[in-house]
Amino acid sequence: MMTYTTLKSIALRSQATLLQDAAGAAALIVMLVVGLHLPAFI
Fold first, then answer.
1. Buried residues in 17-38 as b, exposed as e (16+ CB within 10 A)
2. Which sequence ranges are marked TM in the entry (predicted)?
3. Number of neighbours of residue 2 by Cβ within 10 angstroms
4. Residue 11: what pLDDT?
5. Alpha-carbon distance 41 to 27, whole Å?
6. Contact residues for 14 (Cβ-Cβ < 8 A; gap 6+)
7. Whole-model pTM?
């Protein structure tokens, strides 16, 4: 039960930046995929 309350409090405290963090993670994944496919275009 302690883990659940800890995770819940972390999620509530970081709610303001959660969307920005998700956008940053998505951008990193896109850059990785593009970087891996780049040699096929050259």
1. eeeeeeeeeeeeeeeeeeeeee
2. 22-41
3. 6
4. 84
5. 20
6. 21
7. 0.64
